[in-house]
Amino acid sequence: EPNKIGLAGSPTKVIKVHPPPKTRNPELYKEKDPKGAAEWLTEKIKISLSQTQEKIEYKKPEPVAKVNGELWVYVDHINEEPNETSWEIMSEARRIADLLSTTLSAVIIGADNLVEDAFEYGADKVYLVKSNVKRYDNDIYTRALSIVAKKYKPEAIFFPGTKSSRELASTSAIEINTGLIADCTSFDVDSKGILYATRPDFGGKEMSTIICPNHRPVMMTVRSGVFKPIHNHKKGEIVEEKLDDEFSRYKILDYRRKEKRNVLTESDIVIGVGRGIKSPENIKIAEELADVLGGVVGVSKPLADMGWYPKDRQVGQTGNTIRPKLYIALGISGAVQHLVGISGARKIIAINIDPEAPIFNNCDYGVIGDLFEVVPELIKRLGK
Ligand code: FAD
Q1: At what angle do helices 34-50 and 371-383 cross, to 10 degrees?
Q2: Atom 20, ligand 1: which residue's CA is nearest?
Q3: Does the complex come out with an ipTM higher than 0.85?
Q4: What global pTM score does this model have?
Q5: 8, 19, 149, 316: least buried by Cβ within 10 Å?
Q6: Does the CB atom of residue 370 touch ligand 1 within 6 A?
Q7: CA separation for the pair 56, 365 (Å, rounded)
């Protein structure tokens, strides 16, 4: 129930429960004419693919409040190789820092090589904790982060939603004794300087907006793929700290890189297939479309669950978050749990027989029609 949900004794407080916002402005093709639809779609696909990635120009917003503490972004890395999500969230943290008229700082533990990158992606300042431990170790990194946070008292810390950073955020929140708002997808502030963090809840059906009114810093993990990095190169101040105690209860005996690359998350074009495909044999029609466009097939959860396609091709909340240039959803209804996985796609095209399907509220171009009629026509056209 809106405004009446809150965890007793927790430092964070849910202040609002609301439906996910509509983020796209769909253009729909409604005629019952598969050939016409294919022609229309070919044009839209061309437009979508011809648009080069617009360089995100950062426009500094007018401040709405003034806070004393800085905003921090924890820069996640493995063996000094950064995780891209750190730079994504830096752009949003930059905006929030400007709204709150404060400094944006990056916190880097053990990876001196990332200082310049942090400035490039928008930080004003870098806290560099010098350490010989270049690989994430929860004991050591929690200690490092807690020591600098207690010493410099930031207003808020943003963590990328990677596995290790999510762990680090929770153990540090306990150490610092503050609230952690997990898996956030959008942020806002008010004139009192209160930071509002919004995240999908109730299995993704609703969004919750949460504050941490009485504890500092506010700690947040941010979902990957939601924000786009900005380039805002400048030089800034570097504050070096040294960690004296590098004791850990963990001994890492061996370290292996995950060998399999995920073609789904790396592809610029993804053909998403849902239950509307009706049988596993029919997926070949989507594979054909993927072939002519040079893309790959991804699936909704029910298809992966039924074993119709490999689990690593599942798109959505419990599958992969993808950010292709073009996502074509075939027979996918557009459940929120699916949509969160494609919200970062530059263009979304949907083909669905049901005009009421929620995907039509969340696509750029949509064809109301039977995929078995439209897709073969589309393949014919694109093949030419
Ligand atoms: P449906 O909802 O059944 O939609 C099928 C669509 O096909 C319908 O809109 C129908 O109109 C259309 N259709 C039928 N015939 C045709 C035709 N001939 N031509 C064109 N269109 C046609 N789902 C995910 O996808 N990814 C996740 O990661 C995920 N995680 C979840 C996590 C949780 C905790 C929960 C509770 C659910 C999760 N789900 C996830 C499931 C999600 O809620 C939906 O059930 C699922 O996305 C629906 O898949 P669908 O769109 O393929 O099927």
Answers
A1: 60
A2: 352
A3: yes
A4: 0.80
A5: 8
A6: yes
A7: 23
